[in-house]
Amino acid sequence: MTEKTPPSVVPEALAIAQPLVTWLLRSGVGYGEFVAALKPLFLVQAERELQAHGHKVTDSALSLLSGLHRKDVRALRESAPGEQQVVTANRTAWGKASTANQVATHWMGQADLPDVLPLQGPAPSFESIAQSVSRDVHPRSVLQELQRLGIVREADGQVHLLRHAFVPDAALAEARALTAGAVADHLHAGVHNLTTQGEGKFLEQSVCADGLSPESVQQLQQLANTLWAHVLEQVVQAASPLCEQDLHHPDPQRFRLGLFSYSAADPAVPSHPPAAADGESSTHP
């Protein structure tokens, strides 16, 4: 019996890549530059796949699995691991919240905290929140960073939380890092679920509804924001004591829970009344 060839995942990969290509083009990155940057990534990942399956790592095997020309394999085998380390280091860094973002998240996650707090003094104050997150960074430094990001503003000894501005301006590196870290983790979770058998699946679900008016979409957007506020509060309250408990654990891990919403024009609106929203899931939560 011959082993059945798995179906191509290129159509799905192209759907995933479409918004990425849009971002690249709007950022001045063309096809040639991006393909050249992808070559070391394909090479290193191909080497890891061969090692994971106990196969001998040779130029021919790497070329066959990655699709790279053997001359590219030979040219990149020395430099590719270093470039991959940079990619991995960036993703790891982008997967961890800065002290400033931790302070903002802690503030937003406490329902009993008002959006305006005194800068200094006993709790509740901005100073007390900052010190509860970290005593290694001075509260004034945290405040300055949050002001730079446009997440808070200070006036007359009071600090105002700007909830609508929690996502930094797109021109800032922090916005790119936040998006890249979140999307990369989301995609890693999906790929893990699609390529791993048995238990250990990540939560990766969504719910969709179509045939909606712009007004209805706006209502759902507001509902999503309200639900996220509740999720944020509960997760922060659960995570804070666990972080303190596990501070010196020998095998530290990181955790991310995200929620996103998206709407777009639906050119294929059916003539009949749309069905109820569909729940989509690739895991068993």
Give structural notes.
- It is built from ten helices and five strands; from the N terminus they run ααααααβααββαβαβ.
- By secondary structure, the chain is mainly alpha-helical.
- It has three domains: 10-94, no CATH class; 99-165, Orthogonal Bundle (Arc Repressor Mutant, subunit A), CATH 1.10.10; 179-281, no CATH class.
- A hairpin with a 2-residue loop joins strand 2 and strand 3 (158-161).
Blueprint (SSEs and pairs):
Elements lengths: L9 H17 L4 H22 L6 H8 L3 H7 L3 H15 L4 H10 L7 E3 L7 H8 L5 H11 L2 E4 L2 E4 L11 H23 L9 E4 L5 H32 L32 E4 L4
Helix pairs in contact: 2-3, 2-5, 5-9, 6-8, 7-8
Secondary-structure element pattern, one letter each: HHHHHHEHHEEHEHE
Widest beta sheet: strand line-up: 1-3-2
Share in helix: 40-55%
Total number of distinct structural domains: 3
> What about the largest sheet?
3 strands, antiparallel
- Oligomerization: single chain
Q: Rg, please?
A: 23 Å
Roughly what is the average pLDDT, rounded to an integer?
Answer: 85
Tell me what portion of residues adopts beta-strand conformation.
5-15%
Task: State the separation between the terminal residues, measured CA to CA.
Answer: 36 Å
Q: What is the total tally of β strands?
A: 5
* Helix count from the secondary structure assignment: 10
Task: State the secondary-structure class.
Answer: mainly alpha
